[in-house]
Amino acid sequence: MNVKTRFPPSPTGFLHVGSLRTALYNFLFAKKNHGTFLVRIEDTDRTRYVEGAVESLIATLDRMGLSYDEGPILVDGVLKEKGENGPYVQSARLPIYLEHTLRLVLQGDAYYCFCTKERLEELRKSQELIKASTKYDRQCLKLTAKEVKARLDAQEQHVIRLKIPDGETTFEDVIRGSVTIQNAQIDDQVLMKADGFPTYHLAMVVDDHLMGVTHVIRGEEWISSVPKHVHLYKAFGFPLPVFAHLPLILNPDKSKLSKRQGDVAVEEYLAKGYLPEALLNFVALLGFNPSAAREMYSLDELTQAFDLSKVNKSGAVFDIVKLNWMNGMYIRSMNIDELMESAKPFCERGVVSDELLKKILVVERERLVTLAEIPERIKPYTQPLSYDLQMLVWKKSTKEDAITQLRGVLELITDLDPEVFHDPVLIESHVKRYIESKGLQNGNVLWPMRVALSGFDKSAGPFQIAWILGKDETLSRLSTAIDKLSS
Ligand code: GLU
């Protein structure tokens, strides 16, 4: 079989991290099986339409490296398409949906419904009152063909509903196994709305079939809709695709992942300085883990390892601590020039030279969690320090001792050849040799030296900071600390 998967987001303005995982799994499954991956824009709910959302979605998928074979693309900022099965934006396919819906009406699998919003609201309330399931009561199914024609001729507002047959519906899901639902629980779904737009259910089934989709891989929230879809496939005489419904993504308290407990938009994570590679790796492991002993996977490695049948049934917790850890690991594994390029959009222009930024990143990346922290990490190297003098005093030592040790280091560094400052290891060997020759304790010397250079009680090591600052600035910061302590 020629595998074809799809990712059909609704353009609501951002890409949810759960949708990122769905897109990724569809991408991985298609690639693993040498198949095709398509993207389709599901914009039939006009009340939720957001201007610019399609462009933003395409740009985000591109930044995440999830390339697709068919779908809408941006060429110099203009929306175009690639692939033979378009249009890939549902609002451009309205005649196709109308034609298909009318076919169902002719077959007796769908019917016109003229009920008003008010009547449906009344019906819902009365059903709720007796705790019955809220469903359409099929009043309009009783209309004769003549009555329907008269009301259509009078241009009465209407929708078209799917007629769900009696009995039960069973379907197979790769992740969930066999699922059976009593048809009595299923509403006569609206297929065509009063505004002439199809509902998601109709448009999705028609498009997946016409576009040749073989595997429907999507979030678990859609599993309860599958029986409706199965009836549609059957009514149209379309073969069923393979279904795979992915487990929910949960907050740490096991509730469904929500904005209330943290960010859910991929764009937010990117803006906060999470790397696309880290985000992909992280979401990939929400529901699928090729090996308990390993966490880091590139997109290629994920493709090799991906196995739809090994996706977990149970919900996966979105653990931000793990994402932070992973992002740090990716930052540290990047080549320094790549890191520079990724860091630049986060830095204010003109604050640091490329040379200085590079040195800062070489040192500071050891402790970075996100790229957005970089401006804060740059500040101590580019601005005068302000710190509590007491911080310069090492543990049980004294202010006087701190002055003595700082003076000693200042003298030593004054005499050092500037060449030494080309390498933090050389600076270290000179300072350490001095400490040894004087019979001093490391802490007594290195603690005040590090605080005098960094202004913080926790920071990179003193030799690395001195290397970034250079000889002159190192001397200047040591003297400032001595002056402050002595006054
Ligand atoms: N448009 C739906 C969504 O945004 C797609 C659901 C599906 O994959 O069938 O979630």
Can you characterise this structure?
The protein is α/β, with parallel strands linked by helices. It has four domains: 4-90 and 249-317, Rossmann fold, CATH 3.40.50; 93-246, HUPs (Rossmann fold); 334-381, Helicase, Ruva Protein, domain 3 (Orthogonal Bundle); 389-486, Arc Repressor Mutant, subunit A (Orthogonal Bundle). It is 45% helix and 11% strand. The strands form six sheets. A three-stranded antiparallel sheet has the order 5-6-9. Strand 3 (71-75) and strand 4 (78-82) form a beta hairpin. The longest helix has 25 residues, at 462-486. The mean pLDDT is 95. Glutamic acid (GLU) binds next to helix 6. The site of glutamic acid has 8 residues, from helix 6.
Topology:
Elements: E1 4-7, H1 17-32, E2 36-39, H2 53-63, E3 71-75, E4 78-82, H3 94-107, E5 110-113, H4 117-129, H5 145-153, E6 159-162, E7 168-173, E8 177-182, E9 190-192, H6 200-210, E10 215-219, H7 226-236, E11 242-246, E12 249-250, H8 266-271, H9 276-284, H10 299-305, E13 316-317, H11 320-333, H12 336-343, H13 354-364, H14 374-382, H15 399-415, H16 424-437, H17 442-454, H18 462-486
Helix pairs in contact: 1-10, 6-7, 9-11, 12-13, 13-14, 13-18, 15-17, 15-18, 16-18, 17-18
This protein binds glutamic acid.
